[in-house]
Amino acid sequence: MQVLKKEVSEFELFYDLIFAYAISRIASILFVGADQVLSFKSMGEFLMLTLVFWTIWTYQTVFANRFSIKNKISALFLFFDMFWVIILAQSINVDFEKTHFTFAGATSILFFSIALQYYLKMRSTEDSVVKKLCYQLAIMLCATGLIGFITILPWGAYSIRFSVYAISIFITAFFPIVMKKNLEDFPTNFGHLTERYSLFTLLLFGEAVIAVANTIVFNKISIGSVLFFLMVVVMFLFYNAVYKSGIERQKETAGLVLIHSHYFIFVGLGLSLVLYENYVEAQIKPLFFVLCLAASLACFLGGTIVNMIIYTKKEHNYLPFISKSVIYFAIWIIISLLIQDFIPLFLFVNVVFLLFLLYKVKQELI
Predict the structure, then answer these.
(1) End-to-end CA distance of the chain, in Å?
(2) What are the CA-CA distances from residue 116 to residues 81, 111, 331 (Å)?
(3) Phi and psi for 150 in degrees, rounded to 5?
(4) Which segments of the chain have a pLDDT < 70?
(5) How big, in percent rounded to 5, are the helix, strand and coil portions of the chain?
(6) pLDDT tens across 295-306, in order?
(7) How many helices and strands (H and E) does the chain possess?
(8) Which residue from 328, 319, 317 is spatially nearest to 356, judged by alpha carbons?
(9) What is the dihedral of CA 67, 70, 76, 82, to 10 degrees?
(10) pTM score, whole prediction
(11) What pLDDT score was predicted for residue 104?
(12) In sequence order, which residues have a C-beta less than 8 Å from that of residue 235 and are 6 or more positions away?
């Protein structure tokens, strides 16, 4: 099936702005307690909420990538969904149980809205492949929306209702992997898809700069804030290098690796920013910080490198690079544990490590 070339529209960018704001809002539930660590509960909710927003954004993005037509109906759906994403974003609360009614209700409305778009597309096409694909996705989204509404009803303990809600979101998020064959029969417009994900990640880096700004007082600029900013810059350069030079954007593919790897990229970026911000302000235990930072950077760097390997522009054996990178990462963790109490030195070593890894990636791309 021929895939026509298209660019990311102003409507799509407008839509992405509210999601970038929403994902940045999720960081508000990650607060450091009196024991100077992040609670496992808040970290679990952070992962869950990020999954919710990523899932909704991804389903709408992939629909626009495959089927979007610039007309009044598409625009109305877009603006309708944006309003409910705003409600969703404002429902984010440290005590998630208090806002579950609004949050789960809003996600259900959004899932039903996207399902309706797939249904209308199914009714308007004669292509059997497209019909089957739209039918399966519409049923999946409707089922998840229905479960979301059920969990806001007052039955059973909240922990049980939340677990049911979380499982339904997880299944919906990764259900396309099961549909890989059907999705490959009607591939994405991969150039448009990579551009959409990279631009959205760029918006998140914009939120990262705001996180740096939160550590700066107008009459006192610490070396920690400067190094924090450099960390954000190098992480951006790392992602941008892979996107610009490491991905073949003309591939005929379902794009499942690109899509699902970005969940880990978003999680890694968001969590690392919260950790850095609290570390610069000396509000978090250094040992806890180092261990959590290692996990978050593994998500961000790993998710980015996976795209370089899977969607490489030319056949290349990346195994030596992967093996060496794992060793470099292990050495960085060991050094970090030794200098964890010295904030400027630790941040400087972080910048050097990421610059070194960026250099190695560019060497591979050459």
Answers:
(1) 32
(2) 12, 9, 51
(3) -60, -35
(4) 1-7, 32-34, 69-71
(5) 80, 0, 20
(6) 999 999 999 999
(7) 13, 0
(8) 328
(9) 70
(10) 0.87
(11) 86
(12) 205, 208, 269, 272, 300, 354
